[in-house]
């Protein structure tokens, strides 16, 4: 089994264990982690589509981080735990998308979004996470969908320009934004 497959399998197992018993929509929380990983691959952020060795390494770390992206925020895992098991790069991506403490979502975002903008991999993962969340909300949670619709302008302002300055996969980033725009337009129509 190649290194990438072992790393992803290890990440999936650890995420399943760490999130055991938690629900996401109508299913196990792990479904959300798979959805985020699948969204990355769907929009071309896959080691199998890499054109350079550097790109392969970045996409590999990103694909592993997708399964772990909520592990620091929602479980007893720490940055140090992720770093020990998966290395600095994966831990840095996971930490970047982990919400900082705050009194409410707006304050958390104000503290967290600069971390995400500082690492293009975190931006890609945040977009994949939002795609997975909104897709789920369309069928499972209209209340959360309203919240995402309310935050849409702030979300775009935080990440659109930064994502379009990334050196790789501009097509993938543009397609992610187009997809999110369609999802959010549908969400807006559904909430009116």
Low-pLDDT windows of residues? none
SSE string, helix = H, strand = E?
A: HEEHHHHHHHHH
What percent strand?
A: under 5%
Morphology call:
globular
Enumerate the strands of the largest sheet in spatial order, edge to edge or round the barrel.
Answer: 1-2
| Major sheet characteristics | 2 strands, antiparallel
Q: With helices defined by DSSP (H or I, 4 residues minimum), what is the helix count?
A: 10
Mean pLDDT across all amino acids:
91
**Structural class of the secondary elements?**
mainly alpha
Please provide the count of β strands: 2
Radius of gyration: 16 Å
Explain this structure to me?
The chain has helices at residues 3-18, 30-42, 53-68, 71-74, 79-86, 88-97, 105-117, 120-140, 142-163, 170-191; strands at residues 23-24, 27-28. The protein contains ten helices and two strands; from the N terminus they run H-E-E-H-H-H-H-H-H-H-H-H. It starts with a helix and ends with a helix. The protein has 192 residues and is mainly alpha-helical. Strand 1 (23-24) and strand 2 (27-28) form a beta hairpin. The radius of gyration is 16 Å and the shape is globular.
């Amino acid at each position: 089994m190649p290194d990438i497959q072992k790393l992803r399998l290890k990440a999936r197992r650890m995420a399943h264990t760490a999130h055991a018993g938690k629900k996401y929509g109508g299913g196990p929380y792990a479904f959300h982690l798979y959805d985020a990983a699948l969204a990355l691959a769907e929009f071309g952020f896959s080691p199998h589509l890499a054109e350079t060795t550097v790109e392969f390494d970045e996409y590999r770390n990103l694909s592993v981080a997708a399964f772990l992206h909520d592990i620091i925020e929602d479980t007893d895992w720490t940055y140090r735990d992720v770093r020990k098991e998966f290395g600095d790069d994966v831990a840095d991506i996971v930490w970047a998308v982990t919400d900082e403490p705050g009194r409410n979502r707006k304050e958390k975002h104000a503290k967290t979004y600069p971390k995400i903008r500082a690492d293009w991999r975190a931006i890609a993962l945040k977009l994949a996470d939002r795609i997975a969340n909104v897709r789920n909300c369309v069928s499972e949670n209209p209340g959360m969908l309203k919240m995402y619709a309310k935050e849409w302008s702030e979300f775009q302002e935080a990440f659109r320009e930064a994502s379009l300055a990334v050196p790789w996969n501009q097509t993938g980033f543009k397609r992610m934004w187009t997809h999110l725009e369609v999802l959010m337009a549908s969400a807006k129509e559904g909430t009116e």
